[in-house]
Amino acid sequence: MNFTKWYNELGGNMRKLFFVIILLILIVPAYALSNVKIDKKDVKVLDANVLVNGSPIKSDFGPYVTSGRTFVPVRELTEGLGAEVNWDGENMTVEIKFGEKTIVLKINSDVTYVDGKKNIVDKDQIPKLALYNSPRVETKTMIPLRFVSETLGYNVSWDEKTSTALITTGENISSTVLQTATIISDEDLKNENNKKNSNSGVQFQSQSEKKETKNAQNNKKNKIYERAGLKEEEYKIDPKKRKITKGFIQNGEKIKIVLDAGHGGTDSGAISTIDKSVMEKTLTLDMINRLNERFLMLGYDVILTRTEDEYIKLLDRARISNTSDADIFLSIHFNASNSSTSKGIEVLYGSEKNIIIKKSEQVHMAKAILKELIDSTGAVNRGVKNRADLIVLNKTKMVAALCELGFVTNSEDMEKITDSSYLDTMADAIVRGVQEYVMNYRMESDER
């Protein structure tokens, strides 16, 4: 049929009706629906997207919305947030650990436990088992996104136009950081063979670090705190009486900073896929030596966790910091990915909302350092990220940050981080960031 002839033969009213129908098709959002089986019943759910600090959660089985609630596979969400998950098939419960926070959820139950305290969620947030038929037949444990994310200290918002749940760290992250982070898609995790598989490009853990972290989680908390050099009164704290300050109070005449070169000795950290002679442990020590010179010139009291190619256990790094009553802890790392396109700089911190031993807000120094690094280098801004699960951040009582200064698996980053002048530029930027933080957040004791 000739469409033009047919359209011209329509009456005026019919033409208007046809135009309205076409307009509605164009402007009304087309929501994608999927079928999953929940409680042995076929349920039509709205497909959803989830971004954690701008990076999409990776899963073969997509999140969905039902009864106005977003549900997401537990393992994919917790890994995206940097948390640990344990499944108890016998009792049908899932345990989520993030820093000092522990959440226990039970399938088909409205009873949850947060740090041992019983909570009741509304019926629309009850965890479920969902049977997917695509891309393959598989049952996934689905948990309520907002409840879990906010309990762990994250913020959650919803973009109606794109059916996207936006998860960000508890403190505000600028939209520019989110925009630059969204284009980065990588599954990163460095192990002893330099194969990386971790949380959307966040800081990896080597085999040595993973083993230590697991041991710390399996041991009694008090014992771990003591090994980290903390006194009983520093970790046995009543949350109701706890007071968090915006800034920090200087402990001595000089500002005392602990500089930590990541990895070392038998733990090489990331090994470059571009030049296998380039190892993270060497780069971190090089950067620490540059920072040491600069902070000493500024009158800081500097403590180094290592000065040579040796491995220092994570709890020992924390102990060095805590027993010295340092004001600042700063750890240096470099990144790696199984995607050669992943690049850029990020700074990690452990939020005081998740770590009981912290007395001051943690994000401010991380933000100040990242701003100076990005302004000075023009590198891709991967944002500041709450990683309260990392020992060097959750077992140090002072303000702490961990810098990831580029990817040894990306040719652009590698060209820069093997250039001495570029390393000097980054060292200068880090020092300026710390100085900016000290200038704006150092408090007098009577301000507490």
From TrEMBL:
Cellular-component GO terms for this entry: outer membrane-bounded periplasmic space
The keyword Hydrolase appears for this protein: yes
Pfam family, one: Cu_amine_oxidN1
Chain segments carrying region Disordered: 189-225
Catalytic class of the enzyme: hydrolase
EC assignment: 3.5.1.28
Biological process terms in GO annotation: peptidoglycan catabolic process
Example of a GO MF term: N-acetylmuramoyl-L-alanine amidase activity
Annotated ranges, domain MurNAc-LAA: 318-435
Keywords, alphabetical: Hydrolase
Claim: Hydrolase is one of the keywords in the record: yes
Transmembrane domains' residue ranges: none
Xref: InterPro entries: Cu_amine_oxidase-like_N, Mao_N_sf, MurNAc-LAA_cat, N-acetylmuramoyl_amidase_3
Protein name listed in UniProt: N-acetylmuramoyl-L-alanine amidase
